[in-house]
Design goal:
By secondary structure, the chain is an alpha+beta fold. It contains ten helices and 28 strands.
């Protein structure tokens, strides 16, 4: 029989799926999901996947009722109790995700030949072959071959050595940064994070029977493909599709699971006379505390399973130090960066959330291309004061990062106030002696403005003489609609006519996103040009997926 607490958790889980947001069950810093509850969640996901087309918006209220939630909860309990899980319609898609996850958890090592291909206009425009040997956690030896050149990467889990003909480079702080491009674990984690997974059939791939899947992420209509080996339940190939037609293929043409690999494979002894360059230095918490005494509090603030694995002293980086915490899971991490030069923090953007201890706090739930160390999407938090800046990146969600900052500061974040009634916030460009940045104008309005009215006001340009128009004056708003908290904004091609650099393109996109996301019903903005999703407005920043405040 379900307990009241279980009912509450399932109630929250269904509500989160309806709203298409990350379930709260996985969002707390110290979350653990019991196996029984995980099975219930899997059943509910399967129920949701039966509904291929979203119902009309007014009918969605039915799915929020206690009656509907009670039906799903009872169905979950009944199916699990009588052992009919595997016969439930749509459960195949969910079951294979569970099987892939379990197979990767049991994997200890692998070796084989991987290939990365970039496809554009139906033809390969890049091809790289990698001979890899991997052992958990993050020990690997990988030989990359591309256009008759060869680069060898060796990591003992503590440092990464990049070996070229001209010499070797050693990174003492981020040993895993190269691995994620083709790591089997990366494909597994993508499948776990997918909003929708569908089974397409079976296919022979490199002599193995494979199940072919398609999957997409929350907020995206683009489906990707993955082939899962029926024997090992591990990914053999994935194709990441871009909205404009290009694709990235990562596939294992040969794969051996759990081979016996001696640790000597992951050790590198420099040959005599080789030129060596070192990136970053491994340090100690005691050394960091000489500059940043409060750093010693983080091991106490973080949950017990998070172990301080590495303390890094960074070079040629906006931040001076990093504390790298690792959980029991290979992908579970919290990295905390620090600098006493807060002006460096302007290189990393995010959505301003509020104030904390006389500083400003910024959150980004899906940060991409963060430094050169991280591949994929991660949550970030930034706290900037007059004297210092703290930057956190993690696979965990924003509530966990917020908790860390509030515990560290000893007070709660004061959320940024919404615009006062009778006013609207419009964002333009502010030009300084050294920078192009986002500038805010508070405009008095005689009625409450919806998303279309806000954009029309933005296109009129600023009234504040300190601010500058960033969207070309000839640009027209062709269409705008909101679906599932994403505003789809269709501009005329004039928006691409200006000569944008990377900084001004960032201001352009931020002006649109920040103006629209002041409305509670809008979380992100998908920009279209002449009715099509484009890779980029000016070639510096991707607009292929919905943008959040950044």
């Amino acid at each position: 029989m379900f307990k009241i607490e279980q009912m509450r958790k399932i109630d929250d889980f269904i509500e989160d799926l309806i709203q298409e947001r990350k379930p709260r069950a996985y969002s707390r810093e110290d979350y653990t999901v019991e196996p029984e509850m995980e099975k219930n969640y899997e059943t509910i996901r399967a129920v949701k996947r039966l509904r291929k087309n979203k119902p009309p918006r007014n009918s969605r209220n039915f799915f929020r009722t206690r009656f509907f939630k009670g039906i799903v909860t009872a169905a979950a309990a009944l199916l699990l109790a009588i052992g009919l899980w595997n016969y439930f319609p749509g459960s195949e898609d969910t079951s294979i995700v569970h099987a892939v996850t379990k197979a990767y958890e049991e994997l200890q090592s692998y070796s084989g030949t991987a290939e990365i291909r970039s496809i554009r206009n139906g033809a390969d425009d890049f091809r790289e072959t990698i001979e890899i040997q991997y052992k958990k956690p993050f020990k690997y030896s990988a030989c990359h071959r591309h256009n008759n050149s060869e680069v060898h990467y060796i990591s003992d889990g503590e440092k990464l050595v990049e070996i070229k003909t001209a010499g070797a480079t050693i990174d003492n702080v981020f040993p895993e940064k190269e691995l994620y491009r083709y790591h089997i674990g990366t494909a597994v984690w993508e499948l776990q994070e997918a909003e929708e997974v569908n089974t397409l059939g079976t296919e022979k791939l490199f002599g193995r029977e494979a199940t072919m899947l398609e999957y997409r992420f929350l907020g995206s209509n683009v489906f990707h493909q993955m082939w899962v080996d029926k024997a090992t339940k591990l990914p053999l190939r994935k194709i990441l599709n871009h909205p404009e037609g290009s694709a990235l293929v990562v596939e294992f043409k040969e794969l051996r699971i759990n081979p016996s690999l001696n640790d000597d494979v992951f050790l590198w002894k420099p040959p005599q006379g080789i030129k060596i360059r070192e990136l970053n230095r491994s340090g100690t918490l005691a050394k960091v505390k000489r500059t940043w005494p409060e750093a010693g509090r983080f091991p106490e603030i973080l949950s017990p399973e998070m172990e301080l694995k590495k303390t890094g002293i960074l070079e040629n980086d906006p931040y001076e130090y990093v504390l790298r915490f690792q959980g029991a899971d290979e992908k579970d991490f919290i990295d905390i960066f620090y600098t006493n030069k807060p002006e460096a923090a302007t290189l990393l953007s995010g959505a301003e959330f509020g104030t904390l201890a006389e500083g400003h706090v910024y959150f980004e739930p899906k940060g991409r291309k963060i430094f050169d160390y991280y591949i994929g999407e991660f949550a970030t938090a930034k706290w900037v004061t007059d004297d210092a800046a703290v930057f956190i990146i993690s696979n965990r969600e924003i509530p966990a990062l917020r908790h860390i900052l509030e515990e560290f500061a000893g007070e709660k974040i004061i959320k940024r106030a919404a615009p006062e009634k009778g006013t609207a916030e419009l964002y333009f460009m502010e030009v300084t002696d050294t920078d192009f940045k986002l500038g805010r104008e508070i405009r008095t309005v005689n009625r409450e403005l919806g998303p279309q009215e806000l954009l029309e006001e933005l296109l009129k340009g600023p009234q504040d003489m300190k601010l500058t128009r960033i969207i070309p004056e000839s640009t027209k708003l062709l269409d705008l609609w909101v679906e599932d908290e994403i505003a789809y904004v269709n501009f005329s091609s004039d928006i691409s006519d200006a000569n944008y650099g990377s900084a001004t393109e960032g201001v352009l996109l931020s002006s649109i996103v920040w103006t629209l996301t002041q409305l509670e019903e809008i979380e992100a903005v998908q920009i279209l040009v002449e009715g099509k999703i484009v890779e980029s407005i000016a070639g510096h920043i991707s607009t292929a997926t919905p943008l959040r405040r950044q």
